[in-house]
Predict the 3D structure of the following.
Amino acid sequence: MDTLHQKYQHLTDYIQSLGSLAVGFSSGVDSTLMLKAAHDVLGDKAIAVTASACWFPSRERTEAMEFCQKEGIRHILVEVSPDQIEGFRDNPPDRCYLCKKALFSRIGEIAKEYGIEYIAEGSNMDDLGDYRPGLKAVEELGIVSPLREAGLYKSEIRALSAELKLPTWSKPSFACLASRFVYGERITEEKLAMVEKAEDYLMSLGLVQFRVRIHDKLARIEVPPEDIPRLASMASDLNEKLRSLGFLYVSLDLGGYKMGSMNRAIGK
Protein backbone atom coordinates (compact mmCIF):
# COMPACT_ATOMS: atom_id res chain seq x y z
CA MET A 1 0.00 0.00 0.00
CA ASP A 2 1.46 3.40 -0.96
CA THR A 3 1.76 6.33 1.44
CA LEU A 4 -1.38 8.10 0.21
CA HIS A 5 -3.60 5.07 0.76
CA GLN A 6 -1.91 4.31 4.07
CA LYS A 7 -2.92 7.78 5.21
CA TYR A 8 -6.50 7.23 4.06
CA GLN A 9 -6.58 3.92 5.92
CA HIS A 10 -5.30 5.74 9.00
CA LEU A 11 -8.07 8.32 8.52
CA THR A 12 -10.86 5.74 8.35
CA ASP A 13 -9.41 3.68 11.21
CA TYR A 14 -9.18 6.77 13.39
CA ILE A 15 -12.75 7.86 12.60
CA GLN A 16 -14.05 4.35 13.24
CA SER A 17 -12.34 4.34 16.64
CA LEU A 18 -14.36 7.43 17.63
CA GLY A 19 -17.64 5.53 17.34
CA SER A 20 -19.80 8.56 16.46
CA LEU A 21 -18.99 11.90 14.86
CA ALA A 22 -20.59 15.27 14.11
CA VAL A 23 -18.72 16.85 11.19
CA GLY A 24 -18.58 20.62 10.78
CA PHE A 25 -19.42 20.57 7.08
CA SER A 26 -18.75 23.53 4.79
CA SER A 27 -18.94 21.62 1.46
CA GLY A 28 -15.28 22.46 0.85
CA VAL A 29 -12.60 20.04 -0.34
CA ASP A 30 -11.44 19.03 3.13
CA SER A 31 -14.71 18.63 5.00
CA THR A 32 -16.30 16.76 2.08
CA LEU A 33 -13.62 14.05 2.11
CA MET A 34 -13.80 13.82 5.89
CA LEU A 35 -17.59 13.54 5.87
CA LYS A 36 -17.51 10.91 3.13
CA ALA A 37 -15.01 8.83 5.11
CA ALA A 38 -17.02 9.26 8.32
CA HIS A 39 -20.28 8.20 6.71
CA ASP A 40 -18.63 5.20 5.01
CA VAL A 41 -17.32 3.79 8.29
CA LEU A 42 -19.88 5.05 10.83
CA GLY A 43 -23.09 5.15 8.79
CA ASP A 44 -25.91 6.85 10.72
CA LYS A 45 -23.53 7.57 13.61
CA ALA A 46 -21.96 10.28 11.43
CA ILE A 47 -23.90 13.51 10.94
CA ALA A 48 -23.10 16.76 9.11
CA VAL A 49 -23.69 20.18 10.64
CA THR A 50 -23.51 23.29 8.45
CA ALA A 51 -23.66 26.89 9.63
CA SER A 52 -26.15 29.03 7.75
CA ALA A 53 -24.85 32.58 8.18
CA CYS A 54 -24.51 35.74 6.12
CA TRP A 55 -20.72 35.40 6.02
CA PHE A 56 -20.89 32.03 4.26
CA PRO A 57 -21.76 32.11 0.51
CA SER A 58 -25.26 30.80 -0.13
CA ARG A 59 -23.95 28.59 -2.96
CA GLU A 60 -21.79 26.71 -0.40
CA ARG A 61 -24.84 25.99 1.75
CA THR A 62 -26.73 24.73 -1.29
CA GLU A 63 -23.85 22.45 -2.28
CA ALA A 64 -23.66 21.08 1.27
CA MET A 65 -27.37 20.24 1.24
CA GLU A 66 -27.18 18.60 -2.19
CA PHE A 67 -24.17 16.45 -1.25
CA CYS A 68 -25.76 15.18 1.95
CA GLN A 69 -29.03 14.44 0.19
CA LYS A 70 -27.23 12.50 -2.54
CA GLU A 71 -25.14 10.50 -0.05
CA GLY A 72 -27.99 9.90 2.40
CA ILE A 73 -26.24 11.71 5.25
CA ARG A 74 -28.22 13.30 8.08
CA HIS A 75 -27.68 17.04 7.71
CA ILE A 76 -28.45 19.79 10.22
CA LEU A 77 -28.39 23.49 9.32
CA VAL A 78 -27.63 25.93 12.12
CA GLU A 79 -28.81 29.52 11.69
CA VAL A 80 -26.25 31.96 13.10
CA SER A 81 -26.36 35.76 13.28
CA PRO A 82 -23.29 38.04 13.65
CA ASP A 83 -24.90 39.46 16.78
CA GLN A 84 -24.75 36.02 18.43
CA ILE A 85 -20.94 36.15 18.40
CA GLU A 86 -19.58 38.81 20.73
CA GLY A 87 -16.97 40.98 19.02
CA PHE A 88 -17.45 39.42 15.57
CA ARG A 89 -18.71 42.59 13.86
CA ASP A 90 -15.64 44.53 15.08
CA ASN A 91 -13.45 42.13 13.09
CA PRO A 92 -10.42 41.88 15.42
CA PRO A 93 -7.37 39.83 14.36
CA ASP A 94 -8.74 36.90 16.39
CA ARG A 95 -12.15 37.04 14.69
CA CYS A 96 -11.74 33.48 13.45
CA TYR A 97 -11.18 32.33 17.03
CA LEU A 98 -14.38 34.03 18.19
CA CYS A 99 -16.35 32.54 15.29
CA LYS A 100 -15.00 28.98 15.59
CA LYS A 101 -15.55 29.01 19.36
CA ALA A 102 -19.20 30.03 18.94
CA LEU A 103 -19.98 27.75 15.98
CA PHE A 104 -18.36 24.61 17.37
CA SER A 105 -19.93 25.21 20.78
CA ARG A 106 -23.29 25.18 18.99
CA ILE A 107 -22.32 22.03 17.07
CA GLY A 108 -21.44 20.50 20.42
CA GLU A 109 -24.98 21.16 21.65
CA ILE A 110 -26.41 19.50 18.54
CA ALA A 111 -24.09 16.52 18.91
CA LYS A 112 -25.41 15.99 22.45
CA GLU A 113 -29.00 16.13 21.21
CA TYR A 114 -28.23 13.34 18.71
CA GLY A 115 -26.14 11.25 21.07
CA ILE A 116 -22.92 11.92 19.13
CA GLU A 117 -19.74 11.76 21.20
CA TYR A 118 -17.14 13.56 19.03
CA ILE A 119 -17.05 16.69 16.87
CA ALA A 120 -14.69 17.06 13.91
CA GLU A 121 -13.33 19.98 11.92
CA GLY A 122 -11.57 19.83 8.57
CA SER A 123 -8.17 21.47 8.86
CA ASN A 124 -5.25 19.72 7.14
CA MET A 125 -1.47 19.77 7.49
CA ASP A 126 -1.08 22.82 5.24
CA ASP A 127 -3.18 24.87 7.68
CA LEU A 128 -0.44 24.66 10.28
CA GLY A 129 1.78 27.04 8.29
CA ASP A 130 -0.44 30.15 8.39
CA TYR A 131 -2.02 32.44 10.98
CA ARG A 132 -4.98 30.33 12.11
CA PRO A 133 -6.50 31.62 15.37
CA GLY A 134 -9.46 29.30 14.80
CA LEU A 135 -7.26 26.32 15.62
CA LYS A 136 -6.90 27.65 19.17
CA ALA A 137 -10.68 27.39 19.61
CA VAL A 138 -10.57 23.86 18.19
CA GLU A 139 -8.00 22.85 20.81
CA GLU A 140 -9.86 24.52 23.68
CA LEU A 141 -13.13 22.77 22.83
CA GLY A 142 -11.56 19.36 22.32
CA ILE A 143 -12.60 19.16 18.68
CA VAL A 144 -10.89 16.39 16.71
CA SER A 145 -9.05 17.02 13.44
CA PRO A 146 -9.05 13.70 11.56
CA LEU A 147 -7.28 14.98 8.43
CA ARG A 148 -4.38 16.28 10.50
CA GLU A 149 -4.43 13.10 12.58
CA ALA A 150 -3.87 11.20 9.31
CA GLY A 151 -1.13 13.63 8.20
CA LEU A 152 -3.00 14.62 5.04
CA TYR A 153 -2.01 17.64 2.94
CA LYS A 154 -4.35 19.48 0.57
CA SER A 155 -2.84 17.93 -2.57
CA GLU A 156 -3.35 14.45 -1.09
CA ILE A 157 -6.93 15.27 -0.12
CA ARG A 158 -7.62 16.34 -3.70
CA ALA A 159 -6.04 13.15 -5.05
CA LEU A 160 -8.13 10.95 -2.76
CA SER A 161 -11.26 12.96 -3.57
CA ALA A 162 -10.66 12.40 -7.28
CA GLU A 163 -10.32 8.64 -6.69
CA LEU A 164 -13.58 8.63 -4.73
CA LYS A 165 -15.25 10.70 -7.46
CA LEU A 166 -16.18 13.46 -5.04
CA PRO A 167 -17.44 16.63 -6.79
CA THR A 168 -15.07 18.78 -4.74
CA TRP A 169 -11.78 17.23 -5.86
CA SER A 170 -10.93 20.23 -8.07
CA LYS A 171 -12.96 22.84 -6.19
CA PRO A 172 -10.99 25.99 -5.36
CA SER A 173 -10.49 26.98 -1.74
CA PHE A 174 -12.99 29.53 -0.42
CA ALA A 175 -12.70 30.87 3.11
CA CYS A 176 -15.70 32.59 4.68
CA LEU A 177 -16.65 36.05 3.39
CA ALA A 178 -15.55 37.71 6.63
CA SER A 179 -11.95 36.94 5.61
CA ARG A 180 -12.31 39.53 2.80
CA PHE A 181 -12.41 42.38 5.33
CA VAL A 182 -9.31 44.19 6.54
CA TYR A 183 -8.97 43.65 10.30
CA GLY A 184 -10.70 46.38 12.28
CA GLU A 185 -13.25 47.18 9.58
CA ARG A 186 -16.79 46.63 10.84
CA ILE A 187 -18.55 43.66 9.27
CA THR A 188 -22.07 44.39 8.05
CA GLU A 189 -24.64 42.36 6.14
CA GLU A 190 -24.59 45.00 3.39
CA LYS A 191 -20.85 44.68 2.80
CA LEU A 192 -20.93 40.88 3.01
CA ALA A 193 -23.61 40.86 0.30
CA MET A 194 -21.50 43.20 -1.87
CA VAL A 195 -18.53 40.84 -1.64
CA GLU A 196 -20.62 37.73 -2.31
CA LYS A 197 -22.28 39.24 -5.39
CA ALA A 198 -18.93 40.52 -6.70
CA GLU A 199 -17.36 37.06 -6.34
CA ASP A 200 -20.38 35.41 -7.94
CA TYR A 201 -19.82 37.74 -10.90
CA LEU A 202 -16.14 36.75 -11.18
CA MET A 203 -17.17 33.10 -11.04
CA SER A 204 -19.65 33.71 -13.88
CA LEU A 205 -16.70 34.90 -15.99
CA GLY A 206 -15.12 31.45 -15.70
CA LEU A 207 -12.49 32.41 -13.14
CA VAL A 208 -11.55 29.61 -10.74
CA GLN A 209 -9.43 31.15 -7.98
CA PHE A 210 -10.07 34.71 -6.82
CA ARG A 211 -10.93 36.98 -3.91
CA VAL A 212 -12.67 40.34 -3.67
CA ARG A 213 -11.12 42.05 -0.65
CA ILE A 214 -13.05 44.98 0.79
CA HIS A 215 -11.49 48.14 2.19
CA ASP A 216 -14.47 50.33 3.14
CA LYS A 217 -16.02 51.07 -0.27
CA LEU A 218 -12.96 49.97 -2.28
CA ALA A 219 -12.86 46.50 -3.87
CA ARG A 220 -9.42 44.93 -4.33
CA ILE A 221 -9.62 41.99 -6.72
CA GLU A 222 -7.06 39.22 -6.37
CA VAL A 223 -6.61 36.64 -9.13
CA PRO A 224 -3.63 34.44 -10.09
CA PRO A 225 -0.99 36.38 -12.10
CA GLU A 226 -1.95 34.61 -15.34
CA ASP A 227 -5.51 36.01 -15.08
CA ILE A 228 -4.48 39.63 -14.45
CA PRO A 229 -4.14 40.60 -18.17
CA ARG A 230 -7.62 39.28 -18.92
CA LEU A 231 -9.25 41.24 -16.10
CA ALA A 232 -7.25 44.36 -16.96
CA SER A 233 -8.60 44.15 -20.53
CA MET A 234 -12.16 44.26 -19.21
CA ALA A 235 -11.56 47.00 -16.65
CA SER A 236 -14.50 49.11 -17.77
CA ASP A 237 -17.03 46.27 -17.39
CA LEU A 238 -15.56 45.23 -14.03
CA ASN A 239 -15.70 48.78 -12.75
CA GLU A 240 -19.28 49.24 -13.88
CA LYS A 241 -20.47 45.93 -12.41
CA LEU A 242 -18.85 46.30 -9.00
CA ARG A 243 -19.89 49.92 -8.68
CA SER A 244 -23.46 48.81 -9.32
CA LEU A 245 -23.09 46.54 -6.27
CA GLY A 246 -22.17 49.44 -4.01
CA PHE A 247 -18.39 49.82 -4.34
CA LEU A 248 -17.11 53.33 -5.04
CA TYR A 249 -13.70 52.23 -6.29
CA VAL A 250 -12.50 49.03 -7.97
CA SER A 251 -8.86 47.93 -8.07
CA LEU A 252 -6.88 44.95 -9.36
CA ASP A 253 -4.09 43.71 -7.07
CA LEU A 254 -0.92 43.48 -9.17
CA GLY A 255 0.59 41.06 -6.67
CA GLY A 256 -1.98 38.43 -7.62
CA TYR A 257 -4.04 36.09 -5.48
CA LYS A 258 -2.59 35.02 -2.15
CA MET A 259 -4.43 33.02 0.50
CA GLY A 260 -4.61 34.92 3.78
CA SER A 261 -3.30 38.18 2.30
CA MET A 262 -5.18 40.21 4.93
CA ASN A 263 -2.83 38.74 7.55
CA ARG A 264 -0.03 40.98 6.27
CA ALA A 265 -1.49 43.86 8.27
CA ILE A 266 -1.30 42.06 11.63
CA GLY A 267 1.09 43.83 13.98
CA LYS A 268 1.64 46.76 11.63
About this structure: The beta strands are 21-24, 46-52, 75-79, 118-120, 211-215, 218-222, 249-252. The chain has a mean pLDDT of 93. Residues 95-113 form the longest helix (19 residues).
